[in-house]
Amino acid sequence: MKMMSKEVHCLSRHILSFRKPAEKVDPSPLSSVVKYTSQQSALSSNNTANLSSNHWSFNKTLSNLIRKNILRFLDPERDISILKGTLKPGDVIHYVLDRHSTTNISENLYRLLPTVSPMRNQHHRRCAIVGNSGILLNSSCGQEIDSYEFVIRCNLAPVKEYSADVGQRTNLVTMNPSVVQRAFQDLASDEWRERFVARLQSLQGSVLWIPAFMAKGGEERVEWAARLILLHTVGVRTAFPSLRLLHAVRGYWLTNNVQIKRPTTGLLMYTMATRFCEEIHLYGFWPFPLDPQGRPVRYHYYDTMKYDYASHSSPHTMPLEFRTLNTLHRKGALRLHTGTCHTGNVPIESGQTTRALK
């Protein structure tokens, strides 16, 4: 890891600083909601839930600085995937989070490794990253989300039956191995295998990002998925993140005084997207059980799963991540959308041609 520059220290002091040290932050999600709503109440008496008010403006200078500093820790174009030329079938891989455990590169997985980065030479003016929070339900944000040049989604979340709220366009989607078990019943029957293949076939041309080497326990699910992708010639571009990515991303945020345990998929995607996207908009990021009006919010928009955001046993620190993103939102580095969208209110910049980022 390279030494921190004066710019990195400046970013830590002025962009991502908080009044309390991270370890002393009140773990109660309700206290975060109270703080959040009080900050936003002055913006709009009729829509305190909508963080992305008309007062927001893009801070290109800050966005460029963040991109530059992230590139000191990792290059997402390279680290988004291990490439075929670097491994061969039978090679032993140590898991990123379980260094004493290993797996072997199977023939099927090797066949799915890309020969070049799936994000090579990709640069976009405006991108959307769609998280899976229940805050998206009844948001009517589908049309707006689909208007972005590049859309990133998390953990193969369903979109078809929720398209009015979450849209359908997908250019990159993550798939943790646990998704195969949780959402597709470990592909235990023909019906679940067909559902899985149908979901993948709906992603024609998209990047399917599979963190296969993060933690032990998912190797069989990765192999099952690989077999079905090859068997049915599913038209997705698979990617398998480099072994250094997770620690590099965590290192960047820790250097900037954000004391995360392990970055969530959403924070990983934002960090990497800074490399490919000039202006980044986040939807479905809301790690609290209540919305600003005190109404219950599902953990996922598509199921009834429960989650304890304040649990000390969780590998993630979601409320802290949200406060960090909220700070960057208020400074114009990114835009958080947590309220409702209006039909026909599509960004005027959509459809612009892409151009290289400096």
TrEMBL record:
Compartment(s): Golgi apparatus membrane
Molecular function terms from GO: alpha-N-acetylneuraminate alpha-2,8-sialyltransferase activity
Mode of membrane association: Single-pass type II membrane protein
InterPro entries: Glyco_trans_29, Glycosyltr_29_Sialyltrsf, GT29-like_sf, Sialyl_trans
Entry keywords, A to Z: Disulfide bond, Glycoprotein, Glycosyltransferase, Golgi apparatus, Membrane, Signal-anchor, Transferase, Transmembrane, Transmembrane helix
GO CC terms, sorted: Golgi membrane
Disulfide-bonded cysteines: C127-C277
A single BP term in Gene Ontology: N-glycan processing
Coiled coil: none
Keyword NADP: no
Family: Belongs to the glycosyltransferase 29 family.
Name this polypeptide is given: Alpha-2,8-sialyltransferase 8B
Organism: Merluccius polli (Benguela hake)
Gene that encodes it: ST8SIA2
